[in-house]
Write a structure and sequence with these properties.
α11 links the parallel β12 and β13. The protein is α/β, with parallel strands linked by helices. Helix content is 46%, strand content 18%. The protein has a seven-stranded mixed beta sheet with strand order 3-4-5-6-2-1-7. It is built from 15 helices and 13 strands. The chain is flat and about 80 Å long. α4 packs antiparallel against α5 and α6 runs antiparallel to α7. It binds guanosine-5'-diphosphate. Guanosine-5'-diphosphate binds next to α8. The site of guanosine-5'-diphosphate has 19 residues, from α8.
Length: 455
C-alpha cells in the first residue's frame, strides 16, 4: 500500500489560473516522465529535487496541455516520498484529462487526505500537525488561520511533548528503581513523584482550558443581538457585517425571523443572529420570533443587548435585562448621537459590560469590538502557545488526566510503585495517542477521512 504511487487534482475543482495534479510515491517520477516532454529535452528522471521544467503532457500521441512539472525527491517533499506536481491550465476538463493520463500511466487515485496521511506515516508531521493542515484550509478568519499555522508548526506538539518527556522520564526512573534495587539509582520519593504529577496535571488542565477558545476561533461565537423593537439591532448587525442584510425600518416589530450571518469582528468570528425584540406580543407570528429569541439568548455564547439611548428605560428593557443578566452579555447603549433619556445607571448596575455606541455613525464600535474579544477570550490570544483544536485531541487529554489522577491517588494511598507505574504508563499511552506516536489505524483513518482529496 505504502509503495503505491498515488495521484489527485490538488487544486479546487473549478476554473482557475492553474490546476495542479500531484503525484506521490516511489514511481511518481518514472510515471510522469512517460507523459511529460520538456521544451529543453531534459527528462524528469534526470532532474534534481526542487527543480521545475516547462513542457507538455501528452498521452497516446495527443498533446493534452502545456504544464510545468516540479520534481521533489524523497525525503524532501510534502509526503516524504518522490513527488511530481504537474501545473497545467486550471480548467475542470483539462485537469481531469491530465489526471486520467497519470492514472493510465500507472498511478492510483488518491483517497481523501492520503498525501497528508503519508506525510504522517513517513514522520514528516505528528498527528496534531496533520490535523492542523485541514484547519488551515478551512480557516475563516485571520485568528483561525494563525492558530492553525502555529499548530502545523508544532505549537501544540511542543506543549504536549514537554508533558510527555516528564512522564516518560519518571516512568523510566520508577522502573529502574523498582527493577534494579542494587544499582546506584537516585532515590525516588513519594513527594518528588507527587510534584511531577501535579505539574503535569496543571499543564494538562491549561491545555484543556484552550479547547473552548479553540472552538470559538474555529467555529465562531454564537451571538444574539437582542433588544426591543427599533433600538437599532438591524443597524448594528449591518454595521458589524459591513453590508445591508436585515430589514431596517421605523415600524416596531419588523425583524421577525432569526437572520443568521457570519462576520469577522476584531479577531473573532461571530455567528450573528438578529432576533425579534424580546417584548410580549399578541401577534402570533411575532410571538414565535419572540420565543425563539428567548431560547437562543439562554443558550448562546454572547448576547448583545441593544438599548435606545433616545428613549426612557421601560418594562420591556427591564424584562430583557432580567432574562440576559446571567448570560455572557454586552449591554449596547445605542443612538448616543441623540439626547440621552435612558437610565444608563440601571443598566450598568445590572450588566457588567456596557458600551455606548451610535450604530448610525459608528461611534464606540472599537470599544464594542474590544469587549467582544474579551468575552470570546481571544483578547490576548497568542496562537504560538498551541491550542486544542478538536474533540479527538480533547478526549486524549481528558483520558491522560484521568490516568494521571489515578496515579496521584495510588501514590496518596501508599500503594506500591508498581501500581503507580501502571497508571502512569496509561497516561503516557493517552499522550502518545494524541501526538499519533501510538495510535490505531482506525483513529488515523478517521482523522484523514475529514480531508479533501488531493491534500
Ligand atoms: P431594530 O428594530 O432594533 O432592528 O432597529 P433598526 O435597526 O431597524 O433601527 C430602527 C431605527 O433606528 C431606524 O430608523 C434606524 O435608522 C435608527 N437608528 C439605528 N441606530 C441609530 C443610531 O445610532 N442613531 C440614530 N439616531 N438612529 C439610529
Amino acid at each position: 500500500m505504502k509503495n503505491n504511487t498515488i495521484c489527485a487534482i490538488s487544486t479546487a475543482q473549478g476554473e482557475g489560473g492553474i490546476g495542479v495534479i500531484r503525484v506521490s510515491g516511489k514511481d511518481s517520477i518514472d510515471i510522469c516522465s512517460r507523459l511529460f516532454t520538456s521544451v529543453t529535452g531534459k527528462k524528469l528522471t534526470e532532474m534534481k529535487g526542487y527543480t521545475a521544467a516547462f513542457g507538455y503532457v501528452s498521452y497516446n500521441g495527443e498533446k493534452l496541455d502545456e504544464v510545468i512539472a516540479t520534481v521533489f525527491r524523497e525525503p524532501h517533499s510534502y509526503t516524504g516520498e518522490n513527488v511530481v506536481e504537474l501545473s497545467c491550465h486550471g480548467g475542470i476538463f483539462i485537469t481531469r484529462e491530465v489526471l486520467r493520463a497519470v492514472i493510465e500511466a500507472g498511478a492510483a487515485p488518491a483517497e481523501a487526505g492520503e498525501f497528508t496521511k503519508r506525510a504522517f506515516l513517513n514522520g514528516k508531521l505528528d498527528l496534531t500537525e496533520a490535523e492542523a493542515v485541514i484547519d488551515i484550509i478551512s480557516a475563516k478568519s485571520k485568528t483561525a488561520a494563525r492558530a492553525a499555522i502555529s499548530a502545523k508548526d508544532g505549537a501544540l506538539w511542543r506543549r504536549i511533548d514537554s508533558i510527555k518527556i516528564r512522564l516518560v522520564n519518571t516512568a523510566a526512573h520508577l522502573s529502574a528503581w523498582v527493577d534494579y534495587p542494587e544499582e546506584d539509582i537516585e532515590e525516588i520519593t513519594a513527594e518528588g513523584l507527587n510534584n511531577t504529577f501535579k505539574e503535569c496535571m496543571f499543564d494538562l488542565n491549561n491545555l484543556l482550558d484552550t479547547y473552548d477558545m479553540g472552538r470559538t476561533i474555529k467555529e465562531g461565537l454564537d451571538t444574539v443581538i437582542a433588544g426591543k423593537p427599533n433600538t437599532g439591532k438591524s443597524t448594528l448587525m449591518n454595521l458589524l457585517s459591513g453590508r445591508e442584510r436585515s430589514i431596517v425600518t421605523d415600524i416596531p416589530g419588523t425583524t421577525r425571523d432569526v437572520i443568521e450571518e457570519t462576520v469577522n469582528v476584531g479577531n473573532v468570528v461571530l455567528r450573528l443572529s438578529d432576533t425579534a425584540g424580546l417584548r410580549e406580543t399578541d401577534d402570533t407570528v411575532e410571538r414565535i420570533g419572540v420565543d425563539i429569541a428567548k431560547n437562543r439568548v439562554l443558550s448562546c455564547g454572547l448576547v448583545m443587548a441593544v438599548f435606545d439611548s433616545g428613549r426612557e428605560l421601560d418594562d420591556d428593557d427591564k424584562r430583557l435585562i432580567e432574562i440576559i443578566k446571567y448570560a455572557p452579555v454586552i449591554a449596547v447603549i445605542n443612538k448616543t448621537d441623540l439626547e440621552s433619556k435612558l437610565d444608563e445607571k440601571y443598566i450598568a448596575d445590572n450588566i457588567e459590560n456596557t458600551v455606548r455606541i451610535s450604530a448610525k455613525n459608528g461611534d464606540g464600535v472599537e470599544e464594542l469590538i474590544k469587549l467582544i474579544e474579551k468575552i470570546a477570550g481571544t483578547e490576548n490570544f497568542n496562537p504560538s502557545e498551541g491550542i486544542l483544536a478538536n474533540e479527538r485531541q480533547r478526549n486524549a487529554v481528558l483520558n491522560a488526566k484521568n490516568s494521571l489522577n489515578e496515579a496521584i491517588e495510588a501514590l496518596n494511598l501508599g500503594m506500591t510503585y508498581d501500581a503507580v507505574t501502571v497508571t502512569l504508563e496509561e497516561a503516557i499511552e493517552n499522550i502518545l495517542e494524541l501526538t499519533g506516536e501510538r495510535v490505531s489505524d482506525v483513529v488515523v483513518d478517521k482523522v484523514f477521512h475529514n480531508f479533501c482529496v488531493g491534500k
